[in-house]
Specification:
The protein is of the alpha+beta class and about 325 residues long. It has two domains: about 160 residues, Gcn5-related N-acetyltransferase (GNAT) (Aminopeptidase, 3-Layer(aba) Sandwich), CATH 3.40.630; about 140 residues, Aminopeptidase, CATH 3.40.630.30. A seven-stranded mixed beta sheet has the order 9-10-11-12-13-15-14, with helices on both faces. A five-stranded antiparallel beta sheet has the order 1-2-3-4-5, sandwiched between helices. Strands 6-8-7 form a three-stranded antiparallel beta sheet, with helices on both faces. Helix 1 crosses helix 2. The longest helix has 17 residues.
Length: about 325
């Protein structure tokens, strides 16, 4: 038993759950707002294997079987895991229809939020749903999550709700220095041959306007985002950014992005632009989920090296 409430408990999903998982995920009403229903039992078998592999690689996170304490009946699947293309952790569930309307989703969601904030030390947890899925957004609201934005995840438009835990050492985003940015470099493994201080001075201080944001945990710099006016067309260019690996899954990238967006709008810019390599899928997914559109592709010798230009209207 992994986690329990008054009426329910969670445990690992095992091979013997094959029939229950297949019955759950083949039901078109259950899967209406999630994904196409399963049509073959082999899909459920593959799903169970994927779940077990993910749970082993991500201790404390994962997908679990949810059961009734009184009957040991398989109620559904509950999850607390990475939200694709982001640093966020999402909570979610799906249940057999015969268990709908009993308050089970709210009961377990509250317990999982307490687990995430308490035992895992998470600072922020999100949940997503298709806009038409009012039953799910109602559960989110009852559990204290609040609407934050419209987004795009799992190949569909969604609404994103979030809840945060106020902790000592809360992240603060504010204008910072080039020195603080360079101090974060060693903890950002994705940065290969990053620009030095002279390149920052050349690009930022030589532009009509620039912005240098740093995220601080106390006095420690743990993330950054830098940009400047690159073209005289009403756009602001988000040039460089990153979050120190030990401080990921705290919503820092999102805080930095929102801070730059707010500043750019206040300065009268009409759009944000950024550029990344096609191989940098997390960056692409993060941008697309935050309202950016792909507006250009610059071919290179390999597909992964193609430069992708993205833009968000403000």
């Amino acid at each position: 038993m992994f986690l329990e409430t008054e009426r329910l408990y969670l445990r690992q999903i095992v091979a013997d759950d094959l029939e229950a998982v297949f019955a759950l995920d083949r039901d078109p009403e259950v899967m209406r707002y999630i994904k196409p229903p399963f049509t073959e039992k082999s899909q459920a078998r593959e799903y169970i294997q994927q779940v077990r592999e993910y749970n082993e690689k991500h201790p404390g996170l994962g997908r679990w079987a949810m059961l009734e304490r009184a009957t040991n009946a398989f109620v559904g699947v509950f999850l607390l895991k990475d939200l694709e293309g982001t640093e966020e952790i999402e909570v979610g569930y799906r249940m057999h229809r015969r268990f709908w309307g009993r308050g089970y989703a709210t009961e377990m969601t509250k317990a999982v939020l307490q687990y995430g904030f308490g035992q895992l030390g998470l600072r922020r947890i999100v949940a997503i749903a298709q806009p038409a899925n009012r039953a799910s957004t109602h559960v989110m609201e009852k559990c204290g999550l609040r609407f934050e934005k419209k987004a795009y995840h799992y190949q569909t438009d969604v609404v994103l709700y979030a809840i945060e835990k106020t902790l000592v050492g809360k992240i603060e985003v504010r204008p910072g220095s080039i020195g603080d940015i360079l101090a974060v470099y060693p903890d950002i493994p994705e940065l290969q041959r990053p620009p030095g201080a002279d390149e920052y001075r050349k690009r930022l201080f030589g532009a009509p306007k620039h912005l240098l944001l740093v995220a601080y945990a106390g006095s420690e710099p743990v993330g950054f985002k830098a940009g400047y006016e690159r073209e005289p067309d009403g756009s602001f260019y988000s040039w460089m950014g990153g979050v120190a690996h030990p401080h990921r899954r705290r919503g820092i990238a999102y805080q930095l992005a929102r801070a730059m967006e707010t500043w750019a709008m206040a300065q009268g810019y009409r759009a944000l632009r950024c550029k990344t390599r096609n191989a940098h899928k997390p960056m692409l997914l993060f941008a697309l989920s935050n309202g950016f559109d792909i507006v250009g592709v610059e071919p290179r010798d390999s597909v992964g090296a193609h430069r992708i230009t993205l833009e968000k209207k403000l």
